[in-house]
Amino acid sequence: MRDGATPTPGQPQRPSHDDRNGDFAGPDANPLVRPCDRTRTRWHVGLTLAVLIALVCGGIVGARLWSGAERTSRDEAAHRHETTATTLARATGAPTAARFGTPSTLVDASWRAPDGTPRTGKVAVQPRTAEDTRVTIWVDDTGAVTSAPRSTAEGQFGAVAGGTLVAGALAFTAAGVVALRLRRTEAHTLDEWEREWAAVEPLWTHRGRT
């Protein structure tokens, strides 16, 4: 039957053919594509989109954390000041384990606040530090001992790590959901094959015996 001709009643109709690309027209034109194949394709496409969305979300989170880290670094650099303290006694206390660097112990010391006001208090020094030893400390605007301001690099590393964590968590979650759905699709397909084989196998077996 030529393209465009009126089909004869009762005559099987072939899928319309697109001469431009050689493909059969319509989403269900390929007789070899099973419904389960289309389901798998949809889930794979969905997973690809979910991963792209996860990357975008991770980038947005990372950018926000990056911007926040820069503001925090500038704020701490503006309000934390490096000064020199003088120990008032020998460090004899038990050392405290440090996460990074050498263990330290606390000892009484004196220093001056940024406005010049004398201050005294506990500062961290290395064990067995002698009396009247000058040590470098960081204080805030009021003169209270604080930690050194975080560098911009530390904040940027945290921003990258946070963005990567968010993107990875979303992507792995999407992959887990898709994997579960594909397993269910595979199980349904196997059950369907078994039902179809149970209907066809007796016919094939009888044909083989004749």
List the helices and strands and how they pair.
Blueprint: H1 35-79, E1 80-87, E2 105-112, E3 118-125, E4 134-140, E5 145-146, H2 152-209
Antiparallel strand pairs: 1-2, 1-4, 2-3, 4-5
Helix pairs in contact: 1-2
Describe this structure in words.
This protein is an alpha+beta fold and 210 residues long. Helices cover 49% and strands 16% of the residues. The chain contains two helices and five strands. The chain has helices at residues 35-79, 152-209; strands at 80-87, 105-112, 118-125, 134-140, 145-146. The chain has a five-stranded antiparallel sheet. Strand 4 and strand 5 (145-146) form a beta hairpin. The protein is elongated, with a radius of gyration of 37 Å. The model is unreliable at 1-5 and 9-27 (pLDDT under 50).
Give the gist of this structure.
By secondary structure, this protein is α+β, with helices and mostly antiparallel strands.
**Discrete helix count:** 2
Q: Whole-number average pLDDT?
A: 79
Q: Biggest sheet: strands side by side, in what order?
A: 3-2-1-4-5
Q: What is the string of helix and strand elements?
A: HEEEEEH
Strand fraction equals 15-25%
Largest sheet composition = 5 strands, antiparallel
- Categorize the overall geometry: elongated
**What Rg, in angstroms, do the CA atoms define?**
37 Å
